[in-house]
Amino acid sequence: MAESFFASLECELIARRTWKTKSEARLAVFTWIESWYNPRRRHSGLNYQSPNNFERKHQETTNNTENQIIHELQ
What we know:
Layout: H1 2-12, H2 22-37, H3 51-73
């Protein structure tokens, strides 16, 4: 997974531009990770879903299961 991450970082960000300072580069990498890679990019480890979609579906499933248990106990 780490190799895939760094390959994507290099291909999608680092190889496409240059920066004047280390601070600019750090900010660009941070922004890329936080705004694109982490929340929206589909990951094979999540059945090719984005983390946002995976979390939303997981929460829906959890809520449905809890509601079924409560209904059965009543």
